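Posting here for the record, re: cobalamin.
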Amino acid sequence: MEIDLFGAMRQAVVDGAPTQAASLAQKALAEGIGALDAIDQGFVPGMHAVGEQFAARKLFLPDMLASAEAMKAAMAVLEPELNRQGASRPSAGTVLLGTTRGDIHEIDKTLVATLLTANGFRVHDLGVDVGCDKFAKAAQELNVDVVGVSALLTTTMAGQKNVVESLAGLRPRVKVIVGGAPVTRRWAEEIGADGYGKDAMAAVALVKSLLQK
Ligand code: B12
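Prediction output follows.
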């Protein structure tokens, strides 16, 4: 039954069907499936399938946009559930998040923000297409512990390096972590970041371990 539901979630994202995605998210919660499982095993695999089909030229830009809308509709149902879990915990630290200059992909970063919030972190989300000056200014003003920089395009990864450099005056107190589809651990090391996370769960574990040190 669960497997069918996860399959339907994946398909709703591939089809770019927001109403269907939202109602499947509601169904999952009503059936006692955790919000995290619905995201991880249902909706996210749909986004990855869309990415593969786009690369293979079987889907096009408007299809990716429609899939993003379906994903966002599902998240709108599941996010409050995850945020509720976070609200009941004492603050574990403050994280500033944003996507690099020239990059408008938001879903991956929003997922990272949601899971951090669910785990008790206070998150300030600067949104997408954020320049390094804005990251540096906000990191200082908000007195954050960690800055997370997302990049989904090979061409916008360089922006992560710029952010690391712009935060030089605040480090090592402020930690910088990076992630996004084309980003690797090796890239993180090369640009002098404090860590890399392959997904939102890894981001939570990484932030926890950096703040314990
Ligand atoms: C949806 C989508 C879009 C939507 C975005 C809508 C939105 N509101 O977000 C739209 C249609 C706008 C779009 C546009 C483009 N896109 Co696009 N897009 C995607 C797609 C299909 C899904 C992205 C997504 O949401 N993934 C879902 C999340 C969950 O995936 P995830 O990467 O696993 O996320 C996790 C990790 O990355 C990690 N993470 C992410 N950030 C961070 C940060 C930190 C600090 C940490 C620790 C971890 C972390 O945690 C996340 C959550 O678990 C991807 C394919 C893919 N495989 O990602 C292509 C993809 C990213 N896009 C691509 C391209 C080429 C484009 C365009 C250039 C297309 C064009 N010709 O115009 C434009 C660029 C626009 C721009 N300037 O930014 C390519 C990039 C290739 C490359 N390496 O450069 C991809 C990989 C598709 C492909 N296979 O070719 N896109």
